[in-house]
Amino acid sequence: MRTNEFLMISGAIVPDRTAIHFDGEAVSFMELQQRSNRLANAMADRGVGRGDRVAFMQVNCNQAIEVYFATAQLDAIYVPINFRAKTEELDQMLNIAQPSLLFIGERYLSLVRSGGGSNLGISSDQIIILDGEGTDGRESYEGLLAGASDDEMIFPEAEDDETTVIMFTAGTTGVPKGVMLTHDSFSSFLLSTVNPADPEIEESNLLTVPLYHVAGLQASLAAVYGGRTLIIMRQFDPVEWMGLVQEHGADRAMLVPTMLKQLMDHPRFHEFDLSSLDVITYGAAPMPVEVIRRAIEEFPGARFINAFGQTETASTITMLPPEDHVMEGTPEEIETKLKRLTSIGKPLEDVEVQIVDEDGAAVPTGEVGEIVARGSRMMSGYWREEAATKDAIRSGWIYTGDLGYQDQDDYIFLSGRAKDFIKRGGEMVSPEEVEQVLMSHPQVDDAAVIGIPDVEWGEEVRAVVVSRAGGVSEEEVVQYCQDKLASFKRPRSVVFVDELPRNVMGKVLKRDLREQHGS
User: Of the candidates 131, 92, 132, 96, which has an alpha carbon nearest to the alpha carbon of residue 111?
Assistant: First the structure.
């Protein structure tokens, strides 16, 4: 199924229902379809067609949804770009994608070196300003829409297995790679997990994760297909988030662990009525057990879902469902559930997941290996990166780079990224395991583990710690880990910092930590 059909279906079933709430304004499903169609006509008039790339760089906004559906309608390829990118990073992504049009927020214009002398091939008349007036040959977004017709409907011809999105992910060399996702990458997941729009069922989804991330785009498409009202936040802010939940009675939300923690730690947390929340999905980064246990208590009416995946797998491949978050039963059952809270759940029905060794052979239950997955919604490869594609896709399996093990009940537990594993004297140390222990210390607010060079052992374990008020000493941290871990796993040194470097999805930037504290 093609993704542009999601909007057609909801537009036919619930045309007058609000599709998007953004910046105090509401757009119905019918209006969203009309605006997307008008935009598709405008883009077609500019020569955009099958296979052409259309780039988008802006914080979350309604235009991102409109540009995606218009691009899909033309059989073109949508290229969302991280709005935190610097000029050099933007240069790399634009050089890789070579877009026919670039939709961009006014504040980011200074990053685009268009015109004479540029090696990007982006001219002023290829730039559409999303939130400002058209100047210097550039056209404004609303001006582009105003000059287009919505009478003609362009019907796409591409197959379900053709690329609809190129989404950039960081490469191990620092050069971004363009992940090619097809219509089927999105539709196969949504058709198996989301019910189509229903006139009798109204839901709303508060979107906080960025739309240049696969989780944000997947959540948006799910909302459109499910006929849910999408409440869009430009960027996450705890007070604004709580205010929007209360104002709109939001049913659903996705939060990364750092967002969830910021909410509960905020002094105004208990001032807001958040009881409307029915489903809270979390993921993208490891969730400390203490944080999710507290969240279960603080949001008593909500069902929690841990979703694990990555860009190359078109988002979720394993899930820890709501029932595994209910801390009820015998002491033995509760102990089992507490253990499972540290897992990423079980594989979804529409994907195959295995844990394999370096030769690609499945490892025994309980043994650590690399997580691999296959199914119709995996990426088709990296855009114009044949060698990288062959390395990531082997015999039909996507090699995720994540290490983990599977227990006798099929729950999968992460052990860390393959490139982050620490090799000490022939022993392999999982950063995830040590970090979970560190985070259980009552005076540790946040923690990460890296390997540092060591003449005798090859690498040693170093903890980078954010302490709580009152502090904690290096000796106390080391001794705490010594009591809970094998001796070769405990940190030999501790560095205290004010905060850990994280990306917008809450993942600790281990490369930055190694550069700052790895010697």
Answer: 92
Determine the Cα–Cα distance for residues 402 and 466; give it in Å rounded to an integer: 25
**Rounded Cα–Cα distance for residues 76 and 50 (Å):** 5
Digit-coded pLDDT (tens) for 9-54: 999 999 999 999 999 999 999 999 999 999 999 999 999 999 999 9
Conformational region of residue 199, where left means phi above 0, alpha means psi within -120 to 50, and beta covers everything else: alpha
Q: What structural domains does the chain harbor?
A: 30-181 (3.40.50.12780), 421-517 (3.30.300.30)
Q: Could you read off the pLDDT of 448-507 as tens digits, one per residue?
A: 999 998 888 888 999 999 999 889 999 999 999 998 888 889 999 999 999 999 887 778
- DSSP per position, 427-477: EEE-HHHHHHHHHTSTTEEEEEEEEEEETTTEEEEEEEEEEPTT---HHHH
Strands 352-356, 346-347: pairing kind: unpaired
CB 227 within 8 A of CB 198: yes
Q: What does the pLDDT look like over 99-144, one tens digit per residue?
A: 999 999 999 988 886 544 444 568 888 999 999 887 878 899 999 9
Q: Cα angle at 369 between 367 and 375, to 5 degrees?
A: 120
Pairing of strands 177-182, 381-382: antiparallel
**Residue 151 DSSP symbol:** S
Bridge partner residues of 71 (DSSP)? none
- Rounded to two decimals, the pTM is 0.86
Helix (H) or strand (E) holding 34: helix 29-45
